[in-house]
From TrEMBL:
Coiled coil: none
Species classification: Bacteria, Bacillati, Actinomycetota, Actinomycetes, Propionibacteriales
Record-annotated Pyruvate flavodoxin/ferredoxin oxidoreductase pyrimidine binding domain positions: 262-478
Protein name: 2-oxoacid:acceptor oxidoreductase subunit alpha
Annotated ranges, domain Pyruvate:ferredoxin oxidoreductase core: 523-586
Pfam hit, one: POR
Keyword Transmembrane helix annotated: no
Length: 643
């Protein structure tokens, strides 16, 4: 009898790791990444994720356009981005390897499923020879593993076809990586048991493949090192991992609860906003009504009708849908009804890059309607912050009787991070202050005027239809000041246009001062951003500061109106850098409003900005502003802890 002894494993401490799972669209990489993320969240690491997948429902198998990936960055400290470059790539086929190889730094670990490295698949991926057999991967630590073959062997007892059995290879890979990085496994086995409860063979095969992958890591001599990334210290509270779309949906529900209003969502499915519709449809218990309309225009029209009836009207979409909704949004501006318009931005123009991220709808949000039709604009900065941004959008819409544009994007919508669940006492009280009595004249001559205004907010009264004595008519034609009857008087039109603009401007009175992170107080360069650039900007700023240089950072949540002290903040610095995933839209607005010659850094690649690139750009501006040589290559005490 031969006794098999498992090789002794080393345990190496790491402060952070970036892992990317990549394969064909049918290989389940999004599920694999999501499960690894849930395990990591349960362990207590800080984390940020970056799903990346093609827009096609089924791109040609084994080709570069069909590659789907999921990147997760986890650490024992606070991190801000999903990481610039993976430390570990799990490639399920030649196309996945080729599509992601350029992102890997020297020395990165590559785990390859060798099963699909056939001549046919290599040709489809653009290889003339196998990279596993030449010297093209010599700069990396490559582990060749027949994931598919071992998976089929592990699950053969369940009688599945070879095709069905091989589908569990993503769970084998997940088990192996879970072993390598000491992830808890209970969350995944419980998930699989519930997900496939009605198909016992598929359930048991996936659980078996997952455990087989873990056991392979434990017993094989190919992997002799396990890695440990300790939990990250975080403020006390109850946490959960959350995506931006889920957080945004919860924020809308919270806004409805805090205002005491039923939430009505009128929406048409569109990538990457559809998950908000899916989530809100589950919460009828909170007074949420969801209406999947036949098109974008019907969706927003129904939401405006709901607001007229005293509900919180919401519509969710992306850039193409905003274009279709623009006339109806103008109607909400004219009728001065609360409406939250969620634009989860994606690559454009037209249908562009449906599953990729972009920030190019800012000018559309500002000006994309006929006539002078101003509305407030709010933008979240991280997946968890989508909750707070949604609550803020609801507050502004109800308080000021106006449509509000909430600009999320694909990176925030699909990415995830740990989120501390707030207590109800941390949420603002939102008073709809419905009109309950006539407001003009007295006695028998008393009337209800729907366009009289609150002195502080300039909001008009909101009268729920059916309230006795408050019957009124609203519509898209210009209103007479106060009484609200149709008016073609030139002077009245000029006055009403200016009043609607002044009402939006009044939102700034309720905003806190802009927070500026300038710890030394000696910075001559300010980096100003909005939306999802917060993470890459913050990581780039950390790198520059760690190298010993001074730089300030500020981030805008409110893009219309701007915070009242923004102009004064901009003038405090010699140079202002504005990184954006567009061709300079915020830069244009800042130059126009404040006559400050901001410096734009702009990329429109469908991917988040990279912290390392931004650090170099920031360093160049610091060198120019301070007249010094900037060297960011100086080793930092905590290398890698910036992003």
């Amino acid at each position: 009898m031969t006794l098999v002894v498992a090789p002794e494993k080393q345990v190496k401490q790491l402060d952070r790791v970036i892992i990317r799972f990549a394969g064909d669209s049918g290989d389940g990489m999004q599920l694999t990444g999501d499960r690894f993320t849930q395990e990591t969240a349960a362990f207590g690491n800080d984390l940020v994720t970056l799903p990346n997948f093609p827009a096609e429902i089924r791109a040609p198998q084994g080709t570069l356009p069909g590659v789907s990936s999921f990147q997760v960055h986890f650490a024992d400290h606070d991190i801000l981005t999903a990481g610039d470059a993976p430390d570990v790539l799990v490639a399920m086929n030649p196309a996945a390897l080729r599509a992601n190889l350029g992102d890997l730094p020297k020395g990165a670990t590559i785990i390859v499923d060798t099963h699909d490295f056939t001549a046919r698949n290599l040709t489809k991926a653009g290889y003339t020879t196998s990279p596993l057999e030449d010297d093209s991967l010599d700069e990396f630590a490559v582990h060749t593993v027949d994931l598919t073959g071992m998976t089929v062997e592990a699950v053969k007892e369940f009688g599945l076809s070879r095709k069905d059995a091989s589908r569990a290879k993503n769970m084998f890979a997940l088990g192996l990586l879970s072993w390598m990085y000491g992830r808890p496994t209970e969350t995944t086995t419980d998930f699989l048991a519930k997900r496939f409860a009605k198909v016992p063979d598929i359930r048991d095969a996936n659980i078996t493949a997952f455990r087989a992958g873990w056991n392979f890591g434990e017993t094989t001599e190919a992997f002799v090192v396990r890695y440990e990334v300790k939990p990250a210290p975080m403020p006390p509270g109850t946490y959960r991992n959350i995506t931006g779309n889920l957080a945004l949906a919860y924020g809308l529900i919270a806004g409805g609860v805090q205002s005491g209003l039923p939430v009505f969502l009128g929406s048409y499915p569109i990538t990457p906003a559809s998950d908000i519709l899916h989530e809100l449809s589950k919460h009828k218990g909170f007074g949420v009504t969801t209406f999947q309309a036949e098109d974008e225009i019907a969706g927003v029209g129904a939401a405006i009708g709901a607001s007229f009836a005293g509900h919180l009207g919401v519509t969710t979409t992306s850039g193409p849908g905003v274009a279709l909704k623009s006339e109806a949004i103008g109607l909400a501006v004219m009728t001065e009804l609360p409406l939250v318009v969620v634009d989860v931005q994606r690559g454009g123009p037209s249908t562009g890059l449906p599953t990729k991220t972009e920030q190019a709808d800012l000018l559309q949000a500002m000006f994309g309607r006929n006539g002078e039709a101003p509305l407030p604009i709010v933008a979240p900065r991280s997946p968890g912050d989508c909750f707070d941004a949604a609550v803020e959008a609801v507050r502004i819409a109800i308080t000021y009787r106006t449509p509000v544009m909430l600009l999320s994007d694909g990176y925030l919508a699909n990415g995830s991070e740990p989120w501390r669940i707030p207590g109800t006492d941390e949420l603002p009280a939102i008073d709809p202050a419905f009109a309950t009595e006539k407001n003009q004249g007295s006695g028998d001559d008393a009337e209800f005027w729907p366009y009289l205004r609150d002195e502080a907010t300039l909001a008009r009264p909101w009268a729920v239809p059916g309230t006795p004595g408050l019957e009124h008519r609203i519509g898209g034609l210009e209103k007479g000041d106060g009484h609200g009857n149709i008016s073609y008087d030139p002077a009245n039109h000029d006055f009403m246009v200016r009043t609607r603009q002044a009402k939006v401007d009044r939102v700034a009175d309720s905003l806190p001062p802009l927070e500026v992170d300038d710890p030394s107080g000696q910075a001559k360069v300010l980096v100003l951003g909005w939306g999802s650039t917060y993470g890459p900007i913050g990581a780039g700023v950390r790198r520059v500061r760690r190298a010993g240089y001074h730089v300030a950072q500020a981030h805008l949540r409110h893009l219309n109106p701007f915070p009242k002290d923004l102009g004064e903040v901009l003038r405090r610095y010699d140079k202002v850098l504005v990184p954006e995933m567009n061709l300079g839209q915020l830069s244009l607005l800042l130059r126009a409003e404040y006559l400050v010659d901001v410096v734009g850094y702009n990329e429109v690649r469908g991917l988040p900005l990279k912290a390392a690139v931004l650090a170099d750009v920031i360093g160049g501006l610091v060198a120019e502003a301070e007249g010094v040589d900037v060297d960011l290559t100086v080793p930092a005490p905590e290398e890698g802890s910036d992003d």
